Structure prediction request, 335 residues.
Amino acid sequence: MKTYLALIICTIPVFVFGQYTEVINSNRPGVSQSAYSVGVNVIQLEAGPYYIKEEHALYDYDVKGGGVDFAVRYGLLWEPLEIMVDGTFQADTYTKYTPTEYDYSRSNFKNLSVGAKYLIYDPNKNAGEDKPNLYNWKANHKIKWSRFIPAVSIYAGANYDTELNAYTPLGIEGFSPKVVLITQQNFASGWVFVMNLAKSRIGLKDSNDLDASDFQYIFTLTHGFSEKWVAFGEYQGIKSNFYADDLFRLGGAYLLNKNLQLDTAVTFNVKDTPTVLSFNFGASYRMDLHKDKEVEGSKGTSAKEEAERRDSNDYYKFGEDEKEGSAPTEYKMND
Prediction:
């Protein structure tokens, strides 16, 4: 998840190769995208079912049903680049109570898109001040103002909408542009703040010749309590001629192993036109085919080999009498 990247960068003295991380870096369970890619030759699957209920006080209808949201991510060619296919498919029952009661079943993609994300600015790249201080514990835990500078990525892609879709503006169909501005700040102690500004269905008109595009702004704050557990809160604003809402999302995730994450969340709003309540759970799985570029003097070129080398007793040694804040009695790097 987004927070595990922060745990690696901010709290653990490790060596990071590009954007690849030793544990899975998932966008779930929120709906925002992180600024960082999964890493070259990493294939990542993120999906989960959900239950949703809506009640509209003004139009006197309700919706009950479920669906699945999904994403397939792949790191291509360069560490900052990622391609992605993602979407949400929903099936529900729409019940109208006045003037006469009737209901009907419906199902379709609420959204389906394909695109690419590229990291255009990384404040951690070549940031010497963020390297761990092996001689001073306090230096590794003080406030570092550079962490307030966000990483910035751009996403560009296309939506695909089918004709006569109950979840989209009437009269639209086919492909349309989608762009997202993404920022991410990794603070100390496992705190991460992500912002997405997204414009979708750019240039489309509905059957009434009105602008069918929508604008969304998403703010996600996550906190890692350990290397296994993370909690998050999220606000999602949606503005369009077809639908507008303010959604709030709370939940958490558990890292089962370095390539598998489980998660759950609840989504709700604070209005009655309509009220929205949704529960979801899901998982993210990584197929790690990443290989680091060979570095002069390195004893291994893969991320796995480098991690094993770091974990070995020959990589570094500290004397048993080392105390917090003091210099290690022995520090040895392999040649």
About this structure: Residues 4-18, 295-301, 312-335 have pLDDT under 50 and may be disordered. The longest helix spans residues 2-11.
